[in-house]
Specification:
The protein is an alpha/beta fold and about 725 residues long. The protein has 34 helices and 20 strands. The chain folds into three domains: about 170 residues, Rossmann fold (3-Layer(aba) Sandwich), CATH 3.40.50; about 190 residues, Rossmann fold (3-Layer(aba) Sandwich); about 230 residues, Rossmann fold (3-Layer(aba) Sandwich), CATH 3.40.50.1100. Helix 20 links the parallel strand 11 and strand 12. Its cofactor is pyridoxal 5'-phosphate.
Length: about 725
């Protein structure tokens, strides 16, 4: 198919195919045709026969940007308003609107779009084209639809300067702002690529962003993943075994025992792009951030939007999903407990099961293995139990937790969250054994191969060793900063510190990733309880497990000595030196310790500071905060509060991650509040707490789970690898066979 090149929009007398025009030109002007052919060939390498279709509100700059993109690609530029509608109707768009009215105008506009045909062109739609479903389906058949997303306040300013006070679809009594907001749902429905155009960004810059986005869209080969333990020479030899997002979601752990990370790192956002998200909802922020981290070849934008909407829809008690609350002075709480199982794990695990179900091949059943120190278990069980029935038939979950190493309510919750495809197994050991056992099972190729051959079942991971777990956590750290800007606490660009109760290093790693992507985080403060191996490591560079025994505490989710996600961070600061990471972790496995080089410790300490909190100080912090504010911290948040008080310099705001709802740790909370008589029944404990009218209220989801009388029993096994493997086989036989 051949195309006419033009630097200015071609005014078509009738809506015709550009290919027929090229055919006539080939016959009448062969020299001109040869030049056109070369122009077409240069653009063909980027878009082929597809059109680049620019979509957005009136005033988004679609026509101007389209002309610049067309010039850069040497391809035809078509403006639907000027080149299609007005030539079809023989009147201006405003005259047509006045003639037929809003509803009929949209229909007439859609009909004209349905008759239009082009290939290899840059097409600028009208602001109202996306409101006609059939017309947009027609455009998408041969086009890459790009949404130029300009903040509503900017659009209103531009329209005012253009003396436009009314647009298509705006009825009497409806403001311009309202109709612009209403239209966003249609833009979001149709786009393939989302381009943020914040502030007074120049059209030339937007055009470059469009071209870069199209290049990324057309080439998924660049977004590959590597193991934290792979050598650079090994990577070049393994090009036939590249791993993409879908692969790492499915596989969880790399075959060499390392963790998957993106080979080219995470995307960077400009300050203007972040600022364009200040007015956005949490779901809108999540969509933009995750689209940049997940290639559309793995999950298209429309499917990702569906997954995000399902994850953060009715399952959360707060419409803001992860709100920021002022605590006192320069301290703010990032409340991450409004999900169905009352911990920060819900922010990822209401989403990951749907991502997993979409990415895995249909030809195999999957058993998701989970090791939990408390909160992950119930969050995984709940998340996977919400899948569609057809997905639950091919995906099951087995959750291993330390039988005596979680709070009574956490255990009740994990037992209560068991469903037809989700089971919990208590292990007579600690979390470190559970996590190490799961890792060993994944890297036992004989065993995993046996499960595949014998039962047609593959294993997968839902712990934070799975890359997909980390991405939603990046979102809430970025969103918290944007919320402070939106609340006029700080101007954009001013730094904040974050303080995070840390065990497996996933949550704090996500904050570090948000910093890398452009969020102005100054320091990440790592808060430990009495299992303070991370605090010692960050201060000294020595990771030493020799002679250490896990101490059960009031904050069991951070009762961890081997922090899995630390490996990803070490790989990052070591400039992706997989051999060094392998050496360090082999030394940890064989000798129980390793030491960072001085230069790497200096890099680490530019990002991280650390402190720890005793059990006594944890309870005292809960009592003190409740006495002064009426707000109840959970035990993990109290650990972070104590460490924040120790280490903050009060020169900037500090965001404390409130990682769980206090309801999950009722005995410790009641003890901290100095309530003498404590009933051992978890439900009675929550009712007692509720009688104090605390802030926030007792968690509804937890109450509902504890009221259920379904699966009251669970299996318990010894800390033995063969016993765990036997449980896995039994589950597979019962569910899949």
């Amino acid at each position: 198919m051949f195309h006419v090149f033009q630097y200015r929009p071609l005014r078509l007398k009738t809506p015709v195919s550009l290919s027929s025009m090229c055919f006539k030109l080939m016959l009448s002007r062969p020299v001109a045709f040869a030049q056109i052919w070369m122009s077409w060939f240069s653009s063909h390498s980027l878009v082929g026969n597809k059109n680049i279709v620019l979509m957005g509100p009136p005033g988004a700059g679609k026509t101007t940007v389209g002309r610049i993109v067309g010039q850069k690609l040497d391809c035809p530029v078509i403006d639907i308003d000027d080149d299609v509608l007005e030539t079809t109707w023989n009147m201006s768009v405003s005259e047509k609107l006045q003639d037929v009215g809003n509803e009929q105008f949209l229909e007439e506009e859609g009909k004209a779009l349905l008759k239009f045909s082009a290939s290899g062109s840059v097409i600028s739609l009208t602001g109202s084209n996306p409101m006609h479903s059939a017309g947009m389906q027609h455009m998408k058949k041969n086009g890459i639809v790009i949404y130029l997303d300009v903040p509503t306040t900017v659009i209103m300013g531009r329209l005012k300067s253009m003396k436009v006070d009314r647009i298509v679809g705006q009825s009497p009594g409806i403001s311009l702002k309202d109709i612009l907001q209403f239209r966003k749902q249609f833009y979001k429905k149709w786009y393939d690529i989302h381009v943020l155009c914040g502030g007074d960004i120049a059209a030339e810059v937007v055009a470059e962003k469009v071209l870069d986005a199209v290049k990324r869209y057309q080439n998924s080969e660049l977004e590959t993943f590597i193991s934290t333990r792979s050598s650079r020479s090994g990577r070049s030899m393994e090009k036939d075994s590249r791993k993409y997002f879908s692969d790492v979601v499915t596989e969880g752990l790399a075959p060499d025992g390392g963790l998957f990370v993106p080979e080219r790192g995470l995307p960077k956002f400009t300050a203007g792009e972040w600022q364009s998200l200040i007015e956005a909802t949490y779901i809108e922020r999540a969509q933009v951030i995750l689209e940049r981290c997940i290639h559309p070849a793995d999950i298209p934008a429309s499917k990702l939007a569906e997954i995000i909407g399902t994850a953060y829809g009715e399952n959360f008690t707060c419409s803001k999903i992860a709100p920021v609350r002022h605590l006192a002075g320069n301290q703010f709480l990032l409340e991450l407990f409004h999900g169905p199982t009352a911990s920060f794990k819900d922010l990822a695990l209401q989403m990951v099961p749907h991502i997993f179900a979409y990415c895995i091949p249909r030809s195999c059943n999957y058993l998701v293995l989970v090791a939990t120190s408390g909160d992950t278990g119930s969050a995984v069980l709940d998340g996977f139990s919400r899948l569609h029935d057809t997905d639950k038939q091919r995906i099951a979950v087995m959750n291993f937790f330390p039988e005596d190493g979680v709070s009574p309510i956490q255990k009740s919750q994990m037992i209560g969250c068991q469903k037809e495809n989700a089971w919990s197994v208590g292990v007579k050991s600690d979390f470190d054994f559970c996590q190490t056992a799961v890792k060993q099972i994944f890297t036992n190729s004989d065993y995993t191969g046996f499960l595949t051959v014998e039962y047609g079942t593959a294993l997968a991971a839902a712990n934070s060793i799975n890359w997909a777990r980390l991405l939603p956590q990046i979102v809430y750290h970025a969103s918290a900063y944007l919320d402070l800007v939106h609340q006029d606490i700080i101007p954009f660009g001013s730094p904040v510190d974050v303080c995070i109760p840390t065990g497996n290093f996933g949550n704090i790693l996500a904050a570090l990733y948000a910093k890398m992507m452009g969020i102005p985080i100054r320091k990440c403060i790592c808060a430990s309880n009495e299992n303070n191996v991370l605090t010692d490591f960050i201060r000294t560079g020595v990771y030493d497990l020799k002679g250490r025994k896990l101490i059960p505490t009031f904050s069991p989710a951070v009762d961890i000595l081997k922090s899995s996600n630390l490996e990803r961070y070490l790989h990052l600061i070591a400039n992706e030196d997989g051999q060094l990471v392998t050496q360090l972790y082999n030394q940890l496995e064989n000798q129980g310790h390793f030491q960072l080089r001085k230069d790497l410790l200096e890099k680490l300490q530019q990002d991280l500071v650390a402190g720890w909190c005793s059990e006594e100080d944890c309870l005292a912090a809960i009592h003190s905060v409740y006495s002064t504010t009426g707000y109840i911290l959970d035990t993990h948040t109290a650990v972070a509060k104590v460490v924040a008080d120790q280490l903050q310099d009060r020169t900037c705001p500090i965001i404390i991650s409130s990682t769980a709802h206090y309801s999950k740790f009722a005995p410790a909370i009641l003890r901290a509040l100095r309530i003498a008589e404590i009933n051992q029944n978890p439900l009675s404990q929550l009712h007692l707490l509720s009688s104090y009218s605390p802030l926030p209220p007792v968690h509804w989801g937890l109450l509902e789970t504890l009221k259920k009388k379904g699966h009251e029993d669970h299996q318990v096994c010894a800390a033995d690898m063969s016993t765990l493997m036997s449980h896995i086989e039994t589950l597979i036989q019962n569910h899949f066979m």
